[in-house]
C-alpha cells in the first residue's frame, strides 16, 4: 500500500503551506515570503532550498544554483547535516540537469554521507536515487539497476508513492533502452496508475511520456500523441519547464518514427529553443540529434548531416551519455550504408531516437 504523494523537500513552515502539486511559481513566491521572515539559519536554509527547487524546475539554472549554495551555507551555519544533505541533493540534481554529470555524482555522494550522519532517511533515499538516476542517464545500467530495485523496494515498504513512481519508471526506461518493450510498457503504465492514485501529477506526466515512447516504438503513434497531450497539460499547469521541453522532444520522436519528418523537424526545433533558453545541454543535444535525423530524411545534404553527427558524438561523449552516443553511431552507420541519392526511412522501431533518461524528477 502507499499513501498520497508528498514533497519532503518542502520542510518546516513550507511543508504545511505547499504540496507536491503546487505550481512552481507558487512555490517560489511562498519560499521568498518565508525566507524574508526566517529568523534562524535552519529556517533560511529550508526556504532557500525551496527557492532552488522551484527555479530548477522552472528552468532557471543560475537562480537555482545561487539558491542551493545559499541553502547549504545556511545549513552549515546551523550545524545541521540533514539540511546540508538536502541542499547538496538539490545542487546535484541541478548539475545532472545541466549535463555536468561528474559534478552531480560528487555532490550527491556527499549528500548521501551527510544524510546518513544526520539520520534523515528521506534525504538519504533521495540522494541515493539521484546517484542511481545519474548512472542511468550515463547508460551505466549494470552499476545502477540493482540500486533502482532496492530503492523501489524501500519505497514500497514505506508506502512512498512518489519514490515508487520514480524508481519504477527508471527501471522501465532501462528495459525500454535494452529492447524489452513489453516489460517497459507494463512498468510505465503501472507507475502512471500509481501516480494518478497518489495525486502525483508530475510523476504521472513523466510516466505518460514513457508509455507514449513505447507505444510509438510499437507502431501506435496516435495513442502516443494523445498521451503526450495529456502530459503536456499537466506540465503547463504546474509550470514544469524542463518536463515540458522533454515532452516536446518526445513528440518529435513519435512524429519521426511515424515518418512525419517535416512535423518532427518543426517539433524538434521548438524543443531545441526551449532547452537552450533554460541552459539544458543534454536536452539540447538530444533535440539536435532528432533535428539532424529529420532533416536527413527530408533530403539534407549528407555531408552536412555527417558533420553534425560528428559534433553530436563529441558532445555526448563530453557530457557522458553513452546510450545517446550509440544512437549517433547507429544513425551514421545507417546513413553511410544507403545510396547518396536518398535516405529511406528506417524499419519500424529501428534506429529510432531513444531517450536515455528521464531528467531531474525528484
From TrEMBL:
Pfam families: TPR_12. Residues 339-362 are annotated as: Disordered. It comes from the Bacteria. InterPro entries: TPR-like_helical_dom_sf, TPR_rpt. Residues 339-352 have a biased composition (Low complexity). This is MalT-like TPR region domain-containing protein.
Amino acid at each position: 500500500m502507499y499513501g498520497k504523494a508528498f514533497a519532503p523537500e518542502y520542510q518546516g513552515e513550507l511543508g504545511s503551506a505547499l504540496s507536491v502539486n503546487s505550481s512552481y511559481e507558487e512555490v517560489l513566491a511562498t519560499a521568498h515570503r518565508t525566507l524574508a521572515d526566517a529568523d534562524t539559519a535552519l529556517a533560511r536554509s529550508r526556504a532557500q532550498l525551496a527557492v532552488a527547487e522551484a527555479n530548477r524546475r522552472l528552468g532557471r539554472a543560475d537562480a537555482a544554483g545561487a539558491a542551493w549554495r545559499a541553502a547549504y551555507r545556511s545549513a552549515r551555519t546551523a550545524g545541521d547535516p540533514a539540511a546540508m544533505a538536502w541542499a547538496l541533493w538539490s545542487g546535484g540534481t541541478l548539475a545532472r540537469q545541466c549535463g555536468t554529470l561528474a559534478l552531480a555524482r560528487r555532490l550527491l555522494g556527499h549528500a548521501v554521507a551527510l544524510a546518513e550522519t544526520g539520520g534523515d532517511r528521506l534525504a538519504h533515499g533521495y540522494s541515493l536515487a539521484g546517484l542511481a538516476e545519474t548512472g542511468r542517464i550515463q547508460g551505466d545500467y549494470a552499476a545502477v539497476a540493482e540500486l533502482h530495485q532496492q530503492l523501489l523496494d524501500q519505497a514500497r515498504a514505506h508506502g512512498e508513492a512518489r519514490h515508487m513512481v520514480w524508481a519504477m519508471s527508471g527501471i522501465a526506461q532501462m528495459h525500454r533502452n535494452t529492447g524489452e518493450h513489453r516489460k517497459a510498457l507494463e512498468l510505465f503504465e503501472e507507475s502512471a496508475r500509481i501516480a494518478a492514485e497518489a495525486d502525483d501529477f508530475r510523476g504521472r506526466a513523466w510516466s505518460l511520456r514513457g508509455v507514449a515512447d513505447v507505444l510509438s516504438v510499437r507502431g501506435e503513434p496516435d495513442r502516443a500523441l494523445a498521451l503526450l497531450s495529456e502530459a503536456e497539460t499537466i506540465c503547463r499547469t504546474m509550470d514544469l519547464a524542463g518536463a515540458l521541453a522533454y515532452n516536446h522532444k518526445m513528440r518529435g520522436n513519435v512524429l519521426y518514427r511515424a515518418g512525419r519528418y517535416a512535423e518532427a523537424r518543426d517539433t524538434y526545433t521548438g524543443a531545441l529553443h526551449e532547452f537552450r533558453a533554460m541552459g539544458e545541454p543534454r536536452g539540447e543535444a538530444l533535440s539536435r540529434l532528432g533535428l539532424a535525423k529529420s532533416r536527413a530524411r527530408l533530403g539534407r545534404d549528407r555531408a552536412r548531416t555527417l558533420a553534425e553527427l560528428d559534433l553530436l558524438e563529441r558532445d555526448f561523449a563530453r557530457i557522458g551519455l553513452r546510450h545517446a552516443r550509440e544512437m549517433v553511431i547507429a544513425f551514421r552507420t545507417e546513413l553511410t550504408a544507403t545510396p547518396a541519392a536518398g535516405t529511406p526511412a528506417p524499419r519500424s522501431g529501428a534506429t529510432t531516437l531513444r531517450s536515455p533518461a528521464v531528467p531531474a524528477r525528484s
